[in-house]
Amino acid sequence: MAKKGLIFLMNEKPKGNDGFIIRKIYRFIPEFTNIITTIIELEIYTNNICVISFYEHNKGTDKTKYKIRSNIGSGHTRAIFRACIDAYYELNQDYALVFSASNDIGKIEEDNSRYSAYTLFLSIYFRNYNNYIQQGSIAINTLMLYHQSYQYKDEADLFYKEFEKKVEKNLTEDDDSDKP
Q: Is residue 178 in a domain?
């Protein structure tokens, strides 16, 4: 039986046009439910920028895995969000946190329920949330947080503008590289 909880699996190097320095891959299985494995990815970029995404293991294709909803309850969802934040905190440095809430397959919604859930979760569980500067776009369901003392503010702002453009382009092209 697989060990439950958040487990670091490996570091993955960039391939092709990947812009990240390293992708940290984790497996998460909650303690309290049937075994549903979630893969959590932290893509680390220059200037201490971290993009978090996750998906249910063995669901969908590389193009759809971030858009497929799992049939899980709110407690399980909260546990996955908590595992994402725990993986982020393992970085042990000051990182900007970026996420994008994917739309369901075949839908493009402004301010979708995933985005609302993420922002609510962060406002409750993210340490010192009120000390973080936020940038976001409800129209394309993206958000970036960084601490007021973060040393790469200008670089993070530029990264986020490019990230928003990429997500918007992916939405209009119906591509799936926008991650939750």
A: no
Q: Which two tokens stand for residue 140?
A: 């394309």
pLDDT tens readout for residues 28-65: 998 876 678 899 999 999 999 999 988 887 665 556 54
pTM, whole model, 2 decimals?
0.81
CB of 49 closer than 8 Å to CB of 98: yes
- Is residue 157 assigned to a domain? yes
**Strand blocks (E) in the chain:** 5-12, 22-29, 38-45, 49-56, 96-100, 132-137, 142-147
Query: Helix (H, G, I), strand (E, B), or coil: what is residue 157?
Result: helix
CB atoms within 10 A of CB 125: 12
Quote the domain boundaries for residue 113: 5-173
